[in-house]
Design a protein that fits this description.
458 residues; alpha/beta; 15 helices; flat
Length: 458
């Protein structure tokens, strides 16, 4: 356990109604006693009851610095399981910094990013999966990401992992005990029991790994690239999605010379949308740079929205895009359905098996179908805010994959007729891999790296 006292501004640094300066550590209470004066000058906060809040002043000697409310929370019933003090001062930048400077001057040090949460983890209040969920909660981009983070913070993932580990540990303990005391404990038929247990554990872990793809999308959003030849309606589509005139829309082909990027919340789905330059053969040097950039971006996209102008014939530029999207998740939008069509639905179906939606961005027709199509492609048709857990951390996914591989090796050992003590080696590897998700036996460097991603004051 750490013993020094840390402090940081826990609210944003801007002119606001209130700022909160958080202090945690052994000397928090004695420190605030030096700075706080009640209105009547008769309160010593270190002697007050825990989880109480007090009106008074922060002073520097005889000088009143600010009028404040101070919350006193005594260990261990605090966020960090240490003594914690929170000073609620006025939200001006100058006064907030002045109060923090006094706190540092009287014995605290500036907290590192995420250090309060790191102490909560090190002091056993939360495990590492819950600590990471706090970071996800702060950075949530939509309601679904928020709900998933809350489920994780309440211990949803922890409960699943803990149950898996308990089951694996039981099998390890039984084998070890039976090997040590064969007269009283038999391993006859236990190989089938191990197989049955592993089948159940594999099913749970495989589901978590499979759904981690959705977890990543929930957390980070769907990297969506709008492509099409010039004047197909890409920028108009972007403006509709954003709800404002973000992109310049004209009848002149090639207006968009570079990529435009927007983050859009589409009823719980976060789309990181990139509108690219129209893809066509061009001698314009600047436009060609934009086209080349568009072709490169398509490679890394989660979703391609291919906009086709149905009022003009398909040409070599469209054909090139059809080739590009063969192995990508794609929605084809047959735009300008309000005009005389020169391209039929059957003609597009003959070229691609991707879902096709006939739309008119000008008349706002067919656009509501885009949202449902995205749900079908990424969330099996429905986004639900239930109690399911979606793994959002690549680190967790890697440890789950290691655990799954170790369990497969145990099954192979059973099939190969290996001695039971061989089972325990891979069972223990699976047990430890799952433990690293919760923060057991993780290296200090990894812990430091995780908490560096947090914001200051948390």
């Amino acid at each position: 356990m750490t013993s020094d006292t840390i402090a940081a501004i826990a609210t944003g640094m801007s002119n606001a109604g209130i700022s909160i300066i958080r202090i945690s550590g052994d000397d928090s209470l004695s420190l605030i006693d030096k700075l706080y004066r009640s209105k009547k000058g008769n309160k010593v906060l270190s002697k007050e009851d825990s989880h109480t809040i007090h009106y008074g002043y922060i002073v520097d000697g005889d000088e009143i610095v600010d009028e404040v409310m101070v919350a006193v929370m005594k260990a261990p019933r605090t966020y960090t399981r240490e003594n914690v003090v929170e000073i609620n001062c006025h939200g001006g930048i100058v006064v907030t910094r002045k109060v923090l400077e006094l706190v540092i001057k009287n014995g605290a040090r500036i907290a590192e990013p995420g250090e309060f949460t790191k102490r909560a983890f090190l002091n056993g209040r939360i495990d590492l999966s819950q600590a990471e969920a706090i970071s996800d909660l702060i950075q949530a981009k939509n309601e679904l990401a928020l709900k998933n983070s809350l489920n994780m913070l309440r211990g949803g993932e922890k409960a699943i992992i803990k149950k898996l580990r308990d089951n694996i540990l039981y099998d390890i303990a039984y084998i070890e005990a039976a090997l040590d005391d064969p007269e009283h404990m038999s391993l006859d038929g236990f190989d089938q029991t191990v197989i049955n247990n592993i089948n159940s554990e594999e099913e749970i872990i495989s589901k978590l790994i499979k759904e981690s793809r959705n977890g990543k999308i929930i957390k980070e959003g769907i990297k969506t690239v709008i492509v099409g030849k010039p004047n197909a309606g890409k920028s108009s589509l972007l403006n509709w999605l954003v709800g404002e005139e973000r992109a310049i829309v004209t009848d002149i082909a090639g207006t968009t010379r570079d990529t435009l990027e927007e983050t859009i919340n589409l009823n719980g789905i976060t789309l990181n949308v990139i509108d690219t330059a129209g893809i066509r053969k061009t001698h314009d040097i600047i436009e060609k740079i934009g086209v080349d950039k568009a072709l490169k971006i398509v490679t890394d996209a989660d979703l391609i929205i291919f906009v086709i102008d149905s009022s003009t014939d398909l040409d070599e530029n469209d054909e090139e895009i059809f080739t590009m999207i063969e192995d990508k998740k794609t929605i084809i939008l047959l735009n300008k359905s309000d005009l005389t069509k020169k391209i039929s639905l059957d003609e597009i179906k003959a070229k691609s098996n991707k879902p096709i939606i006939q739309i008119s961005v000008k008349d706002n027709s067919g656009l509501d179908m885009i949202e449902q199509q995205i749900k079908d492609m990424f969330f099996n048709g429905e986004i639900t805010l239930n109690e399911d857990i979606y793994i959002t951390s690549e680190r967790h996914k890697e440890e789950l994959e290691k655990a799954l591989q170790s369990l497969k090796l145990v099954k192979q050992s059973v099939i190969d007729g290996m001695p039971e003590d061989f089972y325990t080696i891979d069972l223990m590897n699976a047990y430890e891999a799952l433990g690293r998700i919760l923060g057991e036996n993780v290296e200090e460097d990894l812990v430091n790296m995780i908490f560096k991603e947090f914001c200051m004051g948390k």
